[in-house]
Write a structure and sequence with these properties.
The chain is α/β, with parallel strands linked by helices and about 220 residues long. The chain has one domain: Alpha-Beta Barrel (TIM Barrel). Helices cover about 45% and strands about 15% of the residues.
Length: about 220
């Protein structure tokens, strides 16, 4: 893949709790220079105004997902008012690990009501903390609830981030009807390309510049 192809899949991300407004402004400038699809920032940093048609994504229920669904929905709704084009929500992981996928679906559906289309809703399932069967159950719940994407990870869970296996399983489950975002621990061009080959249609990266630089060097 060409550098521009990879850049067009990237949510250029800064979700560190200690991130400053100055660092967010630098992120916006870098996203425009790199040609990424979107920036992803914490909801407290909104509104932001990126350049060059870059979309704005944010998170809700982040990073634990252990919030009331109504609170997540309100957070998502306010984020849209403050300019978010996309919302990445964290599921109630406790429900997923006990196989209560009806509750997972209800949680997602409640947030979907808070940020209806055309806002893009991505559902973070923390795939590294789930069995294969639970990953499939969460993906099915996300589709039934009207989400647009399933996403591997917050990047903050001790179980880990994205894996090729999880992305392949998620992509197979949603069958192209939803997008698949790989996020968490993707630090090299090889990592990023492996995720795309596995079926990722979006990449959550904080090391975007370094990864795109590697892609460009490989092309040369």
């Amino acid at each position: 893949m060409e550098r521009a192809d990879i850049a067009s899949l990237i949510d250029h991300t800064l979700l560190k709790p200690e991130a400053t407004p100055q660092q967010v402004r630098a992120l916006l400038d870098e996203a425009a220079a790199l040609g990424t699809y979107a920036v992803c920032v914490s909801p407290s940093q909104l509104p932001v105004r990126p350049f060059g048609g870059v979309k704005v994504a944010t998170v809700c229920g982040f990073p634990s997902g252990a919030h009331r669904s109504s609170i997540k929905a309100a957070e998502a709704a306010e984020a849209v008012v403050r300019g978010a084009d996309e919302v990445d929500m964290v599921i109630d992981l406790g429900r997923a690990v006990t196989d209560d996928f009806e509750a997972v679906e209800t949680d997602i559906r409640t947030v979907r009501y808070g940020c209806p289309p055309p806002t893009v809703l991505k559902v973070i399932i923390e795939s590294a903390a789930l069995t294969d069967e639970q990953i499939v159950g969460c993906c099915r719940a996300a589709e039934l609830a009207g989400a647009d994407f399933v996403k591997t990870s917050t990047g903050f869970h001790p179980a880990g981030g994205a894996t090729v296996h999880a992305v392949e399983l998620m992509a197979h489950t949603v069958g192209g009807r939803l997008g698949v975002k790989a996020s968490g621990g993707i630090r090299t061009a090889a990592d990023a390309l492996a995720m795309v080959r596995a079926g990722a249609t979006r990449l959550g990266l904080s090391a975007s510049a370094a990864i795109l630089g590697e892609v460009e060097q490989c092309a040369d």
